[in-house]
Specification:
Length: 272
């Protein structure tokens, strides 16, 4: 599942290509909206909300999409053959005289009234990269279910919107806390530090081509623990471990993150 900075970058590319221009091509390849005709309407803006993309179109319409695990939007000069994947994977096409955007493998694609956007994103917590960012509210929501593990609470978009599996693992490491620790057992200073760090990292990475959470510039060390199973921790040298937490894999350093380990899970899936 993409992180909030990835979705923010996708929104920026789509906005640059489509906003302020009239659609000359619009093809929604899902049965429910296959007959919708958006040509002749101008795209007003493309706004990210957590991990959701809202493409607002003249006439009070919004095209809502979510990338989930492997969805993607690709932009090409109009007339150029797209090469983001097989043709049958394209679920949406939005084009003007200059640029055309192709939505590949989009698991969520729906057209709705802009006034009804709350139906699809109203449940989200404070957006780490949005104008509504509220660290105090995010910390409060993170603690709303004291028995829930930190890893699952961080992934729940109702608490704070924009954290995916990479940041979940990295944030728990930076807080020196096991991702299996119930949030009700966190020291009082940890939640405010966690949400502040999350905001800082996503802000720093939203303009970078490659995500980085470390300060070291050694090759191959952009992240502390994610994707580093069996490799030595950059801080203490302990081998990084990987285990299931709920429905997602989690990476952590047993040396830097004392507490419960991979034998404790929360079966509830995160809410996107």
């Amino acid at each position: 599942m993409p992180e909030g900075d990835t979705v923010w970058q996708a929104a920026r590319r789509l906005h640059a290509a489509l906003a302020g221009r009239v659609l000359t091509r619009a093809d929604l390849r899902v049965p429910r909206f296959a007959t919708a005709d958006l040509t002749g309407r101008a795209v007003l803006d493309v706004t990210p909300r957590g991990k959701h993309l809202l493409t607002r179109i003249d006439g009070g319409l919004t095209l809502h999409s979510h990338l989930r695990m492997d969805g993607a939007w690709r932009v090409y000069p109009t007339g150029q053959r797209p090469h983001g994947g097989p043709e049958h994977q394209i679920r949406a096409v939005l084009g003007n005289e200059e640029q055309t955007a192709y939505g590949y493998r989009l698991p969520v694609l729906e057209l709705l009234r802009t006034a009804e956007e709350g139906r699809v994103v109203g449940h989200l917590g404070p957006d780490l990269l949005g104008p509504d960012w509220d660290p105090e509210e995010a910390a409060r929501r993170l603690l709303s279910d004291p028995s829930r593990t930190l890893g699952e609470a961080l992934l729940d978009q109702r608490n704070l919107a924009g954290i995916g599996n990479v940041y979940k693992s990295e944030l728990a490491f930076l807080a020196a806390v096991s991702p299996w620790l119930p949030v009700g057992e966190l020291a009082p200073d940890v939640p405010p530090r966690l949400v502040a760090t999350a905001h800082r990292l996503l802000e720093a990475n939203k303009d970078r081509p490659d995500r980085r959470t470390t300060t070291t510039r050694r090759p191959g060390t952009p992240l502390h623990v994610y994707g580093r199973k069996g490799r030595p921790c950059l801080r203490c040298g302990t081998a990084v471990r990987k285990a299931e937490l709920g429905e997602r894999v989690t990476y952590w350093c047993p040396g830097c993150q004392p507490g419960p380990a991979g034998d404790s899970t929360d079966p509830r899936p995160p809410h996107n």
